[in-house]
Amino acid sequence: MTDNPLDPALFHPDAVSAETRALNDAMVKLLSDQPNWWVVGAAATRAARRRGEGPFPAPVFSTRAVTRTIPAPTGHDIPLRIFAPATPRGVYLHLHGGGWVLGGADMQDPMLERLADATNLAVVSVEYRLAPEHPYPAGPDDCETAAVWLARNARAEFGSDALTVGGESAGGHLAAVTLFRLRDRHGYDGFRGANLVYGAFDMSMTPSQRRFGETRLVLRTSDIVQFANAFLPTITERRDPDISPLFADLHGLCPALFSVGTADGLLDDTLFMYARWIAARNAAELAIYPGGAHGFTLFPNKLAEQAEARMVAFLQRVSG
Fold this sequence. Notes:
By secondary structure, the protein is of the alpha/beta class. It has a single domain, classed as 3-Layer(aba) Sandwich (Rossmann fold). α6 links the parallel β5 and β6. The mean pLDDT is 96.
C-alpha cells in the first residue's frame, strides 16, 4: 500500500505478493471443475457451500451469535444474526455477499465476530431474501426494513444509535442502496460510515466486468451476468439508481471506505463509485490490494488481514 490510492505501482504485477499469487493459482485450480450454480440450481449450490464444497472455506458457526426476527411490511419475518459486545459503542449493519443468490447471514461468523470484538460495535447481519426465488426488489426491501428498524430501535436495543453499514460484493451493493433508500424514503441521514467491499455498483456492467473474461478466479464475466439476471429477471433498465447505485444522487452521504483487489472483475465499480462519492463532496477512502481476487477478504491470507485491519480502523473512527 502507498499513500496514493491510485498509484500505478499498485496495479503492476510486481506488486502482487508470492502468497497472493499462490492463493489465486490455487483458486483457479479448485474452481476449474466446479459446476455452474445456474446449471445445478441455486438451492443445491447453497447446500454445497454449507458443506464446505466450492471456493470458500467451510463455514464455522459461532456459538456467540444470537438470531432474532423483525417483521417486514409484507408480512414475513426477517432474521437478524447479531454479535453484541456487553456495552456496544455503536451498531454495524452488515449485508452479506453471494450475488444476491448465494450466501447467508451466518456464513461469515468468524469475520463478524472479529469485527465486533475489534470495534466494540454490535454487528447485525441481515438474512435478506435471495434470488431467483425472490428477485428484486425483495432483497433490497429486507435490507431497508432492517435499517429502518435499527434507526428506530438501536439505542433501546444496544445502548447506542451510532449506525454504520457495509457489506461485501452484492452486500456492498445492498449497503449503498440502503443508504439511498433511508435518505430518500425516510429522511434518515444518521449513518456515520459505509464499509463498501468490492461492491457491484453498475448493473449495466462496467468495463472491468465485461472484460474480465472466463478465468475462474472466483468471479467470471459469465458469473456476473448470471447473478444479475437472477436478481433482475424482468428489469431491462438497469441504470435505475435503485438498481445501480453508481447512477444515484450521491450528495449528503456519510464517509465511506471502498476496498477492492486489482484482480477483481468488479474493480471498476469501486474506482468509479469512489470517484463519484468524492465528486459529490463526501469523505471517502480507497484501499486497493494488489492481486486481490473477488472475495479475497474471506480467505486466510495476509492481504485479507491488511484489509480487515483498515476496515476496523475506519469503523472505529467514524463510530466516534
